[in-house]
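hey so i finally got around to running the thing on that chain from the lab meeting. sorry it took forever, my laptop kept dying and i had to restart like 3 times. anyway pasting the input first so we r on the same page abt which one it is
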Amino acid sequence: MFSVKKILCPTDFSDGSFAAISQAIDLALLFGAEVYIINVMQVQPVLPTDSIFAFESPEYERCLRLTIDEHLSELTKPLAARGLRTRTVVGYMATRRTRSYASLNRSRLISS
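ok and heres what got predicted. didnt touch it at all, straight out
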């Protein structure tokens, strides 16, 4: 029988990624697997159109990381209440990061 212990589910917090997370949750409950929810940050902010506005990249990354962590926490709290094991990961470079994390953690299923 096909055995799944870890499911990796990338998210950008869009409706499509929430649908993928929902399917990952159903599969995790079926197989008793752990769900890894990964978000990949955009490194550089969009340049402001107002020349008076200045936003340093480290400040942008810190604020973005805090926001992402809050969203991931809100997303995983109800899952833990259902007895589902989850982990969250935040990184850079979407495709490379997702594949390397899947390989490193021996995830057999990627829901996207």
